[in-house]
Specification:
Strand content: 5-15%
Radius of gyration: 16 Å
Shape: globular
Number of helices: 8
Largest sheet: 5 strands, mixed
Distance between the termini: 6 Å
Length: 189
Amino acid sequence: MARIVWVRPAQSEWDEQGRLRGNLDVPLSEDGRSHAAGVGRELARLNPSIILCGKSQTIRETADIISAGTGDDGIGVRTHEMFNDVNLGLWQGLKVADVKRKHPKVFRQWKENPALVQPPGGESFEQVRARAKAGLALLGKKHPDGVTVVVCQDVIGALICSMACGTGLEETWRQFRESSKTTWRLFEA
């Protein structure tokens, strides 16, 4: 049985400014780099065999720092589009407060249940679900045993966790929202 460690990307400069990053390339902040290094040291005890991640700078930088923290030579990092951040369309780069003010009902619905809302010009939930399903299939085919670290946003992580564990998406999403300060989560698939 595969063990999957979902890791939330570390803080970017935009996160600290209260901006929605989406799938744009934004570097990690100093705090984010430091935090990712700590996660690498924590995950070293699980002896992961590989790290899979999306292609954005924030996610890739998080994965590279975690890899370096897992041991002398680190472990391999592979990028795959199916683990990319959600494209937030016209919301990308905007401050959360501005989106809340301009689109309060839509933003609240999106935060509570992202399956119900597609940001203007962004990805639909079904597109994101299809990518997560492909990511889970890749995990099962290429990495059926051992510990695989997956660095990706909450929505992708919740979808993978829900599909792999056979739990309802609403319950999984609620758990992810309630654990917003949690950096990583281990589950078996």
